[in-house]
Amino acid sequence: MTEKVIPLADLRYQQSVPRIPAILETPSGLLSDALGRPLHDLRISVTDRCNFRCVYCMPKEVFDKDYAFLPQTSLLSFEEITRLARVFVAHGVEKLRLTGGEPLLRKHIERLIEMLAAITTPDGRPLDLTLTTNGSLLARKAQSLKDAGLKRVTVSLDALDETIFQRMNDVDFPVSDVLHGLDVAHRVGLGPIKVNMVVKAGANDDQILPMARHFKDSPFILRFIEYMDVGASNGWKMDEVIASAEVARRINEHMPIAPVAANYAGETARRWRYLDGGGEVGMISSVTQAFCGDCSRARLSTEGKLYTCLFASSGHDLRALMRSGRSDAEISSALAHLWRKRSDRYSEQRSIDTAGLRQDRRVEMSYIGG
Ligand code: SAM
Ligand code: SF4
Ligand code: SF4
Prior knowledge:
370 residues; alpha/beta; TIM Barrel; 13-stranded mixed beta sheet; 11 helices; 13 strands; binds S-adenosylmethionine; binds iron/sulfur cluster
């Protein structure tokens, strides 16, 4: 029997209201943090709910029928999300990713996408607007998402084998529906589409080769993600991590691959190409090869808290600023102040102490957004 893990304190309630600097500043679009990293990428969690119970993210024993998800009134409205997104874009953000929980569960998400798609960079370019989904509602929604202005999607899929996939999502969701969602998303032009597979030793690592074979020579780019110690409820252990180097070794043994140069600084995935021209695979090595040095990502939780790192234990309450009537200039200056102070580099520090740091003091991935 699995034991229920009860976090010591619900970190969703741990927060601070950002200070408004005495002198307000005009955003230059060139903000950088204490380690010289720009603010380039904003991930927005639009719901903390999900129709899956992936064992590494929302284990059933914790996210059960008694789990207190956020009430509707706590959620940022679409107007609030769009307002904050504009402030972030003025500071240099060019990429917005909607996530969750399962973002396609948020009602009228297409309306939010329309509102975000209307934002441009200060020099008039469109944003890179994307969304990460478990694919369960994708076949139904792909066309309306595309019509609303979404550029592309990333779809999570952890196995091709039905039994293994259902054991991973823990709600008996079938593989075929996700594959169908991928095809429809491709057909309506939501590409290039990336497929994310979290590899957990002993759970789905025998799916590495079948997944690689399936997506080789296809329009989809498969990426293997090292199982991370996010949140406090998945009972993460280092020996359940399969290093990307091992994933690459296993693939290379059957289908030779070689590393490719990164597209841009801060790219999370290391890219590899099949030597026979069969396309690419990516490896996201958050555990064994930390990439904090280039991390330009900010995260906005479902209820409007800014997290400057995936592993942060407290957020900065931007919703409180909005709901207390602060102006855009005040919020923008507060954000600039927060980002300049940012010195997070959790994964690099974890590499020094691989037993995992602060394991009971992290917010859940489904709340902060992956
Ligand atoms: N529900 C959507 C989905 O699954 O794509 C979006 C949210 S989910 C939190 C975003 C990504 O985080 C997914 O690709 C998921 O596989 C990944 N993820 C969740 N928990 C993880 C963990 N412990 N280690 C590594 N990746 C994880
Ligand atoms: Fe849901 Fe995505 Fe987490 Fe799976 S990884 S439980 S689909 S939020
Ligand atoms: Fe960025 Fe934090 Fe992840 Fe490092 S650990 S890459 S700083 S989110």
